[in-house]
């Protein structure tokens, strides 16, 4: 197939950059996607524009064959199937939007699929490790810093919140608040994916940690209504929380560096192990589809298999003692 290219002497105009910026404004303002998601979309479209520039084609002139070639090149270069799928998703959304604007007559990403890959199990902590992290007290830290980080840990593990939901919490409910915690009712009200609101129970340990943090927060409070702030009174960023949680897990003596989503996975896995109620876990996590939640049944079975291997007398060949 002969793919269209610009004449060698033709200089690309700013039209492509304007289209990309208009789309990014759309997903940020109208679709209200998380800042991190917008950042990833930006990187995806920068990659697309760079590929198009190499073959001197405008973004509106890209063909299905171009997309397939670039996917094959990424796969050959060693990019994971999941990474390619995410990039394709970003490109697909862009061209769907262009079509709705009447700017293209076809979607070049239509029917293009990423290479198949096995679904890895989400990384989750064991119950003992989770409790060890949540119970840790870092005496060397400023009292406000320790109270804040402890509260963050309790809410991530105790409520299964996404990092975006956590940073979006305000101190109090209001017409502009993305989320807040009703301590009297023991509920967290959060704004999840797709701008869907849900309520999640907050346990006693998390409520106690919240009370300690609110008492300390007053020493830092500025104009920001955010629940979690830094010493200058500004709302914490997701990256700041990732760094603090990784540090806390190291100081608590955990072998594995912990990230926020790992605590969400741990929450889901432990609730499912205790209750066996997949639908309830789906509601607590805010998953739109039960199939997304079903991955935790694999974690649950993995846990049961380990218990069986360690405890059942018939789990091992004759003469071979249990491991450990």
List the helices and strands and how they pair.
Elements: H1 15-30, H2 35-54, H3 64-76, H4 81-100, H5 127-135, H6 143-159, H7 163-167, E1 180-182, E2 187-191, E3 197-201, H8 204-217, H9 238-251, H10 260-275, H11 278-285, H12 290-293, H13 295-311
Helix pairs in contact: 1-2, 2-4, 5-6, 6-8, 6-10, 10-11, 10-13
Descriptive key words:
324 residues; 3-stranded antiparallel beta sheet; 13 helices; globular; disordered N terminus
Strand arrangement across the biggest beta sheet = 1-2-3
Largest sheet: 3 strands, antiparallel
* Count of separate DSSP helical elements: 13
Mean pLDDT: 84
- Fraction in beta strands: under 5%
H/E series: HHHHHHHEEEHHHHHH
Return the structural class: mainly alpha
Describe this structure in words.
The chain has 324 residues and is mainly alpha-helical. It has 13 helices and 3 strands. The chain has helices at 15-30, 35-54, 64-76, 81-100, 127-135, 143-159, 163-167, 204-217, 238-251, 260-275, 278-285, 290-293, 295-311; strands at 180-182, 187-191, 197-201. A hairpin with a 5-residue loop joins β2 and β3. α5 packs antiparallel against α6. It is globular.
Question: Nutshell version of this structure?
Answer:
The protein is mainly alpha-helical and 324 residues long.
């Amino acid at each position: 197939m002969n793919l269209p290219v610009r004449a060698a002497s033709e200089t690309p105009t700013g039209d492509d950059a304007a289209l990309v910026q208009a789309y990014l404004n759309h997903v940020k303002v109208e679709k209200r996607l998380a800042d991190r998601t917008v950042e990833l979309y930006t990187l995806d479209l920068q990659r697309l524009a760079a590929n198009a520039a190499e073959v001197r084609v405008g973004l509106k002139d890209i063909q299905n064959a171009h997309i397939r070639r670039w996917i094959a090149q990424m796969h050959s270069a060693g990019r994971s199937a999941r990474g390619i799928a995410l990039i394709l998703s970003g490109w697909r959304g862009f061209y769907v939007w262009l079509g709705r604007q009447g700017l293209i007559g076809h979607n070049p990403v239509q029917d293009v699929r990423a290479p198949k890959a096995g679904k890895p199990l989400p990384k989750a902590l064991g119950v003992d490790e989770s409790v060890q992290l949540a119970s840790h007290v870092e005496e060397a830290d400023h009292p406000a810093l320790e109270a804040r980080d402890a509260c963050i840990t309790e809410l991530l593990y105790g409520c299964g919140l996404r990092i975006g939901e956590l940073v979006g919490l305000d101190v109090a409910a209001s017409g502009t608040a993305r989320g807040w915690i009703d301590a009297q009712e023991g509920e967290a009200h959060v704004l999840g994916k797709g701008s869907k609101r849900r309520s999640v129970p907050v346990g006693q340990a998390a409520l106690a940690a919240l009370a300690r943090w609110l008492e300390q927060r007053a020493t830092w409070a500025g104009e920001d209504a955010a629940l979690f702030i830094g010493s200058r009174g500004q709302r914490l960023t997701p990256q700041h929380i990732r760094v603090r949680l990784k540090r806390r897990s190291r100081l608590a003596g955990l072998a594995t560096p912990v990230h926020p989503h790992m605590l969400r996975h741990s929450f889901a896995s432990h609730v499912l192990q205790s209750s066996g109620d997949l639908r309830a876990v789906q509601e607590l996590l805010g998953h739109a589809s039960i199939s997304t939640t079903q991955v935790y049944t694999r974690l649950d079975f993995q846990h049961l298999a380990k218990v069986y291997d360690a405890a059942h007398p018939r789990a091992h060949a004759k003469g071979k003692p249990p491991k450990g």
